Amino acid sequence: MDTSNWTSIQGDWNKFKGQVKEKWGKLTDDDLMRIGGNRDQLIGTLQQRYGMAKDRVEEQVEEFASHASGWVQQAKNKVADMAEPVMSYWQDHNAGEMVNDLKRLINRYPVQSTLVGIGVGYLVGRIMTPSRS
Question: Are 17 and 5 in contact (CB under 8 A)?
Fold first, then answer.
């Protein structure tokens, strides 16, 4: 067993719950919350839900974990690939050029720009407004 793969999943359990449920559809939301990223708990719950032998469940979980580490690495690579041109843009352009680029984008995509503006405004409003608990 490669514990580094499972350590990534356990550390980001909330991000992986959807993929776990997609692979093993008999798991309920309560199951996923109870499992909480614990590999042994997942194996035990899968044995109960699917009636499979422990070694077969362990194989499936290990296969899932090895794929999951690939997903994590792909995401890291995409972020790194996108970060480089963004950093380069920020370094190569002054504020006036960035404002002009933004104006061109808004003129080119007015509907999308309006929707983004509404979404950002909504999020800022939610963040800035105290909760009424």
Answer: no
